[in-house]
Amino acid sequence: MLEKGLFFRSFRSLTKTGIIHNLKGKNAQLARENRLKEDKIRELKFQLEEYKRLVHGTRSEGHVSAEIAEQLLLDLAAETSGGPAKQPEQEITYKRKKPSVKPNRQPLPDHLPRVEHIVEPDEDVNGLKCIGEEVSEVLAKQPSRLFVIRIIRKKYARADGSGVVIGRCQAVPFKRAWPMRAC
């Protein structure tokens, strides 16, 4: 607004030819700005069309079969009548490292005290052989301290080889529920 006021005040002190000259200069400046903006609009429209083609364009390349008549006239049957040539077989053996299983989380710190809960199977384990344990660690808290609960579920193999018996996991609403975790 201030610029407009100064512009018109300067007209009072100018002659008609001076005013016409100033207006022509201003008109030329506005025309240059207009051309620049139109060029920018054209460029942006082109980019938009390119992006639309990339996103919504066809994804498959059509295969146009262009058979050449001379190729069909070649006598290839005489050369391959002996059947396919057998290539010598080669036996390849190699050792591969087993991919490591990535843990879901970092182990709980060793400096926290541990409370162990041993869970035995519900059925009688007399005569069964203990073959291992399933250990789950859960971070627990009391108002003034943090500690780790180690849930140790014993695994037993049946003597007749019909399967494995393991202690039950504690019931939680869903896996990784606080404060206990599904085993």
Through-space gap between termini: 74 Å
Summing up helix and strand content along with how strands pair, one would put the structural category as alpha+beta
The tally of strands reads: 4
User: What percent of residues are in strands?
Assistant: 15-25%
Radius of gyration: 42 Å
Q: H/E element string?
A: HHHEEEE
Which residues sit in consecutive blocks of at least 5 with pLDDT less than 50? none
Q: What's the quaternary structure here?
A: single chain
**Helical stretch count?**
3
* Mean pLDDT over the residues: 77
Give helix % range: 25-40%
Largest sheet: 4 strands, mixed
Query: What general form does the structure show?
Result: flat
Furnish the topology, listing elements before pairings:
Layout: H1 2-13, H2 16-56, H3 69-73, E1 114-119, E2 129-142, E3 145-157, E4 164-166
Parallel strand pairs: 1-3
Antiparallel strand pairs: 2-3, 3-4
Which properties best describe this structure?
4 strands, alpha+beta, 183 residues, 20% strand, 3 helices
